[in-house]
Amino acid sequence: MNARPQSPRHQGHRILEGLSTAVLVFGGALRLEYLNPAAEMLLAVSARQAAGRRLDEVVPGADELAWRIEQTLQGGQTCTERELHLHTPSGQDIMVDCTVTPLVDPQGGSQALVELVQIDRHLRIAREESLLEQHQAARQLVRGLAHEIKNPLGGLRGAAQLLERELDREELKEYTHIIMAEADRLRALVDRMLGPNHVPQRRRCNIHQVLEHVRTLVDVEGNPGLDLARDYDPSIPDFPADREQLIQAVLNIVRNAVQALAGSGRILIRTRAQRQITIGAHRHKLVARVDVIDDGPGVPPELQETLFYPLVTGHAEGVGLGLSIAQALVNRHGGIIECASRPGHTEFTILLPLEPMDDEGR
Q1: Helix runs in 220-321, H state only
Q2: 167 falls within a domain
Q3: Looking at the domain assignment, is residue 361 inside a domain?
Q4: Does the CA dihedral 207-211-213-214 come out positive or negative?
Q5: Which one of 124, 161, 257, 287 has the minimum C-beta count within 10 Å?
Q6: Is 274 helix (H, G, I), strand (E, B) or coil?
């Protein structure tokens, strides 16, 4: 039996659906008439939800893109825009190369075919791979230093104990107590630099319960000038994770924001579900994104590249371990923490895969 011939329109949609380039078709009043699966992934919207909506509802604030589409619909000329910044409905910023091509609607109207090629994705992947490699290298360095430091500390503490037994005067024993106390303090500091040494105990976990627990802990620390707001995406499903480790990671980031604000300002904790996200070299179907945003003075430019290294801090009273430990804990869940900062807006972003991972985060 011969296959039933397909209409040219149906064949065209099948071709577009196989492309890796995001393709959208807009008609009059800039209403979306079609988008292919690549566009759904790029904009994190479904075709069913977006069909028939205006451009500003599908891509909020895309004034430049709207102007380009209107020019194409009116003049019938193809136009291209390089390095166009867009905002997805989920709040993600993306950079794309955009081509708008006029089409003839079979019903006699005008349509514009919009092609979007994300150019910042490759840059972000390279940056994340570099960040992960640098973090692993830093941890290897810390492990080596820890071995070299802890052995002499053990000998130093043991010698102080032996010396104390030989001393008759209590005022002299006070000095040996100081030696032992400082040896213990340095050993504890080295252990903190190494971070937690137990594998994650994975159980079904709700990310919003984690975040609410962190909010409660920060609230009871007493910062009356702090506005701790939240904007949660209820569609994020439960996933296997170590709840205590995630609490510690998020708490370190939020406390870092509180320190930056000196206890007075606004912190927003925001969650979004994102699809088809690459973390390092691995692509994930579904990822939980947690943003911790503050309106403080920002991270100094000279610290932004090394912010997650051990002992790097912009606070005079800090030891620079909170963010390093947070990164290590999130890495164990196959995720990553990124930071973007300018005066008045600092945004730490935690990306956590929602599919099961092994204990090494793979």
Answers
A1: 243-261
A2: yes
A3: no
A4: positive
A5: 161
A6: strand
